[in-house]
Amino acid sequence: MTAITLVQGDITLQTADAIVNAANSSLLGGSGVDGAIHRRGGPAILEECRRLRASQYGKGLPTGQAVATTAGDLDARWVIHTVGPVYQVSGGDPTLLASCYRESLRVADALGARTVAFPAISTGVYRWPMEDAARIAVQTVRAAETEVEEVRFVLFDERAYTAFAAQLP
Ligand code: APR
């Protein structure tokens, strides 16, 4: 049974086996969580992302999929990069956002990660309404068949924390 925990804070300061990045398809960095992870994680992460782009992800990481790299200087063993859907593009269809969580857990299981820290994927630059994103995130994690023992949602502000807390019993 996977425990779901909530923390309000900066995901790059978390200690976990795997920290999930809200990336974009290029895997070459950005702002928000992506910018913070590369800033604090250091160049090793980007170097590995570049190698992924030069090999099996020549066209970039598709929305809803996930791939792991080193965590560099973060207090984790891996960063799992996943690309969330843009709200306007998806028209609110939850499929691809749910896939980000499911695929990240699948990658975590393949690595043997037991604690996984997630940000609120797609709720920043990609403008997914927070309450709906929280519902999709918690429902997907609850329904997932995974060996991960703790899923920790790391919420950057009170609004996000409140939205996720409303999804827990
Ligand atoms: N720790 C935890 N949460 C954070 C942090 C942080 N250091 N920084 C931002 N957040 C929160 C935001 O407040 C938002 O609720 O993470 C959530 C996701 O926001 P974004 O990082 O903007 O991610 P997303 O909406 O999925 O957009 C992805 O943004 O940074 C670019 O390269 C990225 O193009 C991609 C897009």
If you had to describe this structure to a student in words, what would you say it looks like?
The protein is of the alpha/beta class and 169 residues long. The protein has one domain: Leucine Aminopeptidase, subunit E, domain 1 (3-Layer(aba) Sandwich). The protein has six helices and six strands. 38% of the residues lie in helices and 22% in strands. The site of adenosine-5-diphosphoribose has 25 residues, from strand 2 and helix 1.
| Helix/strand/pairing category | alpha/beta
CATH topology: Leucine Aminopeptidase, subunit E, domain 1
* Relative helix content: 25-40%
Give the name of the CATH superfamily.
Leucine Aminopeptidase, subunit E, domain 1
CATH class, named Alpha Beta
Morphology call = globular
Unreliable stretches, pLDDT < 50, 5 or more residues?
none
The averaged pLDDT comes out at 98
State the gist of this model.
The chain is 38% helix and 22% strand.
Descriptive keywords:
38% helix, 169 residues, six-stranded mixed beta sheet, alpha/beta, Leucine Aminopeptidase, subunit E, domain 1, binds adenosine-5-diphosphoribose
Give the arrangement of secondary structure elements.
Blueprint: E1 3-8, E2 16-23, H1 32-41, H2 43-54, E3 66-70, E4 76-83, H3 87-90, H4 95-111, E5 115-118, H5 130-143, E6 150-155, H6 158-165
Parallel strand pairs: 1-6, 2-4, 2-5, 5-6
Antiparallel strand pairs: 3-4
Helix pairs in contact: 4-5, 5-6
The protein binds adenosine-5-diphosphoribose.
Adenosine-5-diphosphoribose binds next to β2 and α1.
